[in-house]
Amino acid sequence: MLPTAKMLWANCLEVDFDEIECDFVLTSPPYIDLEIYEHMEAFGSKENYYKNFLIPLLDKCRKHCSGAVAFNLAPDMYKDLTGKFGYETCDVTEDLK
User: Fold this and answer.
1) Which residues are CB-contacts of 57 (< 8 A; sequence separation ≥ 6)?
2) Which runs of consecutive H residues, i.e. helices, occur in 1-97?
3) Is residue 12 a contact partner of residue 56, using CB atoms and an 8 Å limit?
4) Paired residues of 41 in beta bridges
5) pLDDT tens digits, residue range 27-67?
C-alpha cells in the first residue's frame, strides 16, 4: 500500500512544518520576480527575495526534513545564494541543461 500524500496550497513560510513528517523535499521556488504565483506579491529586490524568502525556506526545509532536500534553482540564483548571500554550497549539484 502506498503512503498517503497530502498537498498543501499555502504560503510555505506560514505552514507549520512541525506538523509535517517528510524524508524528501523537492521544490522549484519562484524565480525572484520572473514568476508571480496567485496571491503572491512581487519580492521587489534580489536582496528581499533571498533574505526574506529563499534562505528562510531553505533553512525551514532542511530543519524539518529527515532526508534529502532538493531545490530547482537557476545557475545564477545558486551563484548569488552561495556567493553574495553566503549560503553554504550543496553536497551535490546537477546542471540540467
Assistant:
1) 12, 13, 27, 29
2) 46-49, 55-64, 75-82
3) no
4) none
5) 888 887 677 777 778 888 899 999 999 999 999 999 999 99
